[in-house]
Design a protein that fits this description.
The protein is an alpha/beta fold. It has 22 helices and 25 strands. The longest helix is centred in the C-terminal third of the chain and has 19 residues. The chain is globular. The two termini are 47 Å apart.
Length: 673
Amino acid sequence: MHLKIDDVEVEAEEGSTILEAAKTAGIEIPNLCYLKELGPYGACGVCVVEVKDCPKMLRACATKIAPGMVVYTKSEKALATRKLALELLMGDHDGDCQGPCKLNCPAHTDCQKYVKEIAEGRFADAVATVMETFPIPASIGRVCPHPCEKACRRRLVEEPISIAQLKYFAADEVRKDGNARPIKVAAPTGKKVGIVGGGPAGLTAAFKLAQWGHDVTVYDQMPEMGGMLRYGIPEYRLPKAVLKYETDAIAALGVTFVNGFKIGRDATFEKFRSWFDAVIVANGAWKSTGMRVKGEELKGVWGGIDFLRAVVTGEKPEIGERVAIVGGGNTAMDACRTAVRVGAKEVFVVYRRTRREMPAEDIEITEAEEEGVKFKFLCAPDEILGRDGKVCGMRLQVMELGEPDERGRRKPVPVEGKFEEIALDSVIAAIGQRNDPEGFEALPQTPKGTIAADEGNFATALPGVFACGDTVNKGAGIAIGAIAQANEAALAVNAFLNGGEYRPMKTILSERELTEKDFADRPRIARTKMPQRPPQERRGDFKEVNLGLSVEAAQAEAKRCLECGCHDFNDCSLVRLANLVQADTRRFKGEFHPGFEEKKLVTIERNQRKCILCGQCVRACEKIAGKGVLGLVGRGFKTVIKPEFRDADITSVCGSCRLCAETCPTGALRIVQ
């Protein structure tokens, strides 16, 4: 018979269904419940198509073809009906497509996967998993404020998994053993890419583009690569030998590094652009934000990142014996702990809110206290006092907490007429940082003075020029956030070099909402503590504070993972099709089918919460395996699939058959042995 499907002339055997006819022509009609060996079923409703002169939508898996039939699989009506069917299915699919840890990582590193690989002792595999996202796991593992851990479900049991520490544990083990997995590099494309900035964003973009076969050169104004990881993070947190090992590995892929090069001094940006087919600007935020108080011009006033950079580069900043650091973030903690190490006798941290509101990691605050740093909460600088042009003290405005701001943090307000003075030799302002626009005037800027770039693909207004990291849009953030942007920018550059345009698409996922009650039966296992050097010893030098996890401790910690993300995510037909039509997973969210996990099938675990009642497993068991172990039980909304074991022989057959799990389109069935 001859018919037309999506304007393609198709010839198919009489008696074929529309779905089968489409397959012969290489046209995919999405479906979730069709198997050739089983025949039509029509349970999912996803394969709906529009047929000319037919008033209703038809299921392609169950509708026979007719001579001259005209079928539209992607008409507006067909797509809308298919989307509706998928939204109904997703509304009753109670599962986590991906773990909360991965979803909360700005770069979407597959935390669950590499934690599992560490638990199994596959450290090189774990590092390879991280490097699918970025190339510097040992460095980022040491400095990342790990938003992944803030979302870790293990916190609902007792404490989150030590995800960041496990990351750099694995990287350290691989570096020590020299058994890193080789990085595959595509054949040369002949395209040249120039990257300005050798920090986390620039290095990540270079790593990705080099793997895709492009000729990449990274330019940086500093003597060595690493950006703020090298010049803004103290040695005691991130040994520079670790960072150099990872940057050397990037260079080994064929990436060229050019140091001591500054746009505007060594070449204009226009000239720089002319050397390459595409450019990424990732020059970071190297200027300290001012406090905007009287006396800021006095000798002895430092910007936080300026002070840290001076120490890293071997300068000996004269800060005296009494030092105050203004700020409450991780840079402030780095600055105060560095001040202790360069000889200050009394170090204060001045913060306008309380400890509870401090954005710095709690461990950083605790370690600073252990090293003798004193905290002056609910205080803000009102004036820096000077004598003979040099800092001699600071006048502090006493504050109190008022109403919450737009982020929910209680806003500090001055207590009228209440001040305090402290004697000081120097003041270090660690209240923020901004980019340096010098040399990049040709690039449009935001009202904040950052480079304006598309929020999705990080393209600028100049063709072939992209920008990412701390220098763009909202400005400075955490390193893993810059890495996330670099990955998108690299994809956009790769598309541009191939004559296309990259536009990121929202990923459709199923997510569960759980509470402590859902984990009430889990055994409480304490989080592994990182061994450290004692405070009195470590405060006198810049050797690394953390001593590292042992293999046994790391594996024990990794085994605490609850493995929230679905084991079948990469092969899940349901989520793939939901993404194709951008289904709204919450449109029909309401009461779920009865949910339970069952392990009676010997080698198969069945999660009823993920089941969409497509019937594949039931029909495969009955018609292909010939056993009929599984069946639909109940009526209406409460229908579930359950096994019936009539004798021991049936149970043993399930152990070797596994056909039900292989045909399941959603991950509701998992082979466990």
